[in-house]
Amino acid sequence: MTHSEIQKVDNELQLACQELVITSTATLIHKMHSLIYTRGARVKYDNPQIDSFDLARTISNQIVVHFQFPLKYSRKHFDHLIFIFKGLMISNPKLLKNSVSQLWFGFLNEIDEDGNDILLYLCLKVRGCRYRFIKYLIKMGCNTQRINHYGQSFFNALELKQNQKLLKKLFEHEIILFYNLTGKIIISTNIFE
């Protein structure tokens, strides 16, 4: 792509971000996902207008709506929100420092129909690279001891066969570790530094 084509795609994503509100449509979510993962769009942080845009609050509001009305929104809609969040954070780490640091804490305790909070939901129902988001949620104070309606906790979910790659990544990045005295997995204190 030429420089002007790249700028056009980036501007398209910037406009889509500004349109994103609680009542946004699945079409807009799909468009943003496509712009990031198909066309390589990124949000530039050199625009004073983006200073007032609270990406984290907007996406967390979308996640809360998904938890409150699980039948209204598909799982694909929720997965796209997570991927949009990750894609925007990777393309522009300043968004992580400037926008996500003000993340609305209310969604940390929201639960779905199975009793999963956002941390358990990521471990049990989302696939792909999740360790950065999980690290961030733990740093934000997400309850790692919460038990869902099926008796599963964060640590139980990590030990499932489907989460072996995630478990390995969390160990590699020193987000979790084995506590030698008990042999149990614990949260590393390094992530809070």
Question: How many β-strand runs?
Answer: 2
Tell me the number of structural domains.
Answer: 2
Spans of at least 5 consecutive residues whose pLDDT stays below 50 are none
The topology string of helices and strands comes to HHHHHHHHHHEE
What portion of residues belong to β-strands? Answer: under 5%
Structural class: mainly alpha
Coarse morphology: globular
**Number of helical stretches of at least 4 residues:** 10
* Main sheet attributes: strand count, strand direction, barrel closure: 2 strands, antiparallel
Strand order of the largest sheet: 1-2
Helicity, in percent?
40-55%
- Span between N and C termini? 40 Å
**Radius of gyration in whole Å, from Cα?**
17 Å
Rounded mean pLDDT is: 77
What does this molecule look like?
This protein is mainly alpha-helical and 193 residues long. A hairpin with a 4-residue loop joins strand 1 and strand 2. 53% of the residues lie in helices and 4% in strands. It contains ten helices and two strands; from the N terminus they run H-H-H-H-H-H-H-H-H-H-E-E. The protein has a two-stranded antiparallel ribbon with strand order 1-2. It has two domains: 104 residues, no CATH class; 83 residues, no CATH class.
Structural descriptors:
Ankyrin repeat protein; mainly alpha; 193 residues; 4% strand; two-stranded antiparallel ribbon
Write the layout of secondary structure elements.
Layout: H1 3-19, H2 26-37, H3 48-51, H4 55-68, H5 75-91, H6 93-98, H7 118-125, H8 131-140, H9 154-158, H10 164-172, E1 176-179, E2 184-187
Antiparallel strand pairs: 1-2
Helix pairs in contact: 1-2, 2-5, 4-5
Protein name: Ankyrin repeat protein
